[in-house]
Amino acid sequence: MGKEKTRKYGLDFLKGFAACFVVFMHARFPELFGYYVAMIGRTAVPIFFMTSGYFSYQASREKIRKSIKRTAYYILVAYVLGCFALVISLHFDSNLVMQYINELILTKDHVLRLIFLTDTKLSGVAWFLLALLICYVLKYYLGVKLRYLAYLGLMVRVLGAIQFPFLGLTIPVNTPWVTGIPFFVIGELIHENEEYLNNRLSSGVCALIGLIGLLILVVPIFHGSLWWFIGTLLLSPSLFVLFSRMDMKFNRFCLLGSTYAFFIYIVHPLVMHSYDAVRMDISGVESWLRPLIILTITVLLAVGYYSLKRKIAKR
Known about the structure:
Layout: H1 9-26, H2 31-41, H3 44-56, H4 61-89, H5 94-105, H6 108-117, H7 126-142, H8 146-159, E1 163-164, E2 169-170, H9 176-192, H10 194-200, H11 203-218, H12 225-244, H13 251-258, H14 261-278, H15 285-314
Antiparallel strand pairs: 1-2
Helix pairs in contact: 1-2, 1-3, 1-12, 1-13, 1-14, 1-15, 3-9, 3-12, 4-7, 4-14, 7-9, 8-9, 11-12, 14-15
């Protein structure tokens, strides 16, 4: 029998924070400020993986099946919107669209990377959804044995042994094997050891660990994928533990995490491509406002979508 799960408003708030920073990673602010925001935003996707792992701890097989179906639906929506974004970004030129598909999407290399590494060119954000789907499927069939894959993934990532010459592939960071499964399992472990962590790890210590991770992410002397991974490995779990303890009933902002997070994640690339197609050669003040405008439009679309969905459900 699984542990009773109560609403975690702090995690809703953290997921809302992560959803905003995903947008700011892709629709970046200019200059050095944009770099710092993007570095902090590296914690966003690991937080989503940890949240999924946290709430999958001791979950029934039926619940995991529902998670698999829901994630597959999100993937389908992401790819449909990815097609629209592709058409917009190529200025509705059917010849360019077909050339892009034939030369980049339907190649053997891309198909292999999509199957084994969830590296997709059609909808860049879908890599996370594909990786999450793999986490759920492996959780369904392996149960706690999934942790062995997580430990292996962490070891591979830290050692930097990420090349497979016989396939002609280099494993990118955004894969289920070195990012998805490890952080998914970290979320499970946090849930499993929550009482111990609350008793032995004070909020001040969590904040200190997070600060060290943040410094590693943003200080130039720590440039490099391995350092950035270590920084993320310190900052993301410490934030997760810290916010899981907080009863932050900031309901409006928490909606971003509890209800709108996946919508924002999937829809914001389409909003970004649409905005850039209309507002070309952006500079000056607008370049600073662009990420905020894209986030605002995406959130308004989410509010409209879920409001309409509730009205239809009441009929």
